[in-house]
Amino acid sequence: MDYLIMGGQLMLSLSILIVLHELGHFLPARLFGTRVEKFYLFFDPWFELYKKQIGETEYGIGWLPLGGYVKISGMIDESFDTEQMSEEPQPWEFRSKPAWQRLIIMLGGVTVNFILGFLLYGFVLWVYGQEYLPNENLEYGIQVDSLGQEMGLRDGDHILSIAGKPYEQFNDRLVVREIIINNADKITVEREGLEVEVPIDPKYVTLLSSYEYKNKALFYPRMPFKIKDIMEDGPAEKAGIKPEDQIIGLDGQPTPWFIDFARAIRGKDGVEVDLTVLRNTSDTLQLSLTTTENGMIGVERVLAGELFGTKRKEYSFAQAMPAGVQKGWTFLGDQVKAFGQMFRGRIKASESLGGFGTIGSMFGNEWLWERFWTMTAVLSLILAFMNLLPIPALDGGHVMFLLYEMITGRKPSDKFLERATIVGFVIVIGLVLYANGLDIIRSFFS
Question: Do 353 and 433 contact (CB within 8 A), yes or no?
């Protein structure tokens, strides 16, 4: 069921983006009197799932969900219609139009995706606002995972800044981003009342960007094990544990923090354990229970946001739209910087690339509209960015040749464009197969 939910979100998101991207080519083409023969969601080699002729354009849905296309008369594209190109140019064909009109047609798709990404970011902020856990609210500092400890962080640290940037919203992904994208070289923390600088080895750029560590937490909020709710007929209820109780010990071993309890109970599956429980902040009780077969005691704990309190920044429409644009530009800037890190060898393409499986997992196994529209905004900007790469068969390749023509006054021959498009098409398909192949390999060895 989880895979169906993730797959359904991915297919809906891609369908929206593909249709609007191709509409970005379709509308200026029609505006300039260029004939559009086909408008397809997904590719249709050999056969299609649906088609309908309206006027001079055939609209349809293909069966291969690797993208979509509009077939514009007189244009060398992935259809490789050499028969049409061998005939004399007609007034309604793409190749007969002035270079500036062809440039607008080719830039239409990425323009729509850029605008859509910015708008979606803005609408998400307007409708949902932005909820976050203020770093200053973390009374007990951080609880560090093994990777964070290796980097030099310690339990109880209060993070103050990352490479001089104030750390105001608690989220370990912000730290990871600064290390990978901006080469942050130090984290400043408050440790036992003193300000301490923790240097960051450059090797963590490669490590944190690898597939193995991409979702690996560096640290969590350090917090006590306070009970929120009790499972009916579970071990905790039978032992007399109540909501608001705080577990502070296991089998005589002090567990002042939740992580201490989680570590201490590891391996104690289906056995009797003794709990030290704090009730009403002053009463200490000793209670015994038998854990479940998977080592659980049958409680739901109070989470960090509930214990320390979150804040939600609300946006008016007038505030949300420019904030959405700023958020989108920041994301695009990160993509450019990530490419730079790849060229420097600090990020490995084989570790950071992923196919449809990786993208689908980012939607999550629960259909949450806030996350769906945020992910759609992300994918829209990625689609625009990738399509602008100067690879023949992509929009950026067509734009590159058009700019050459406009600057030099010389138009590349149709034969050259045809061969370049074939090479570009092979490159693009190769990258798609490579990325999805990585997903398949990871699924077998993860």
Answer: no
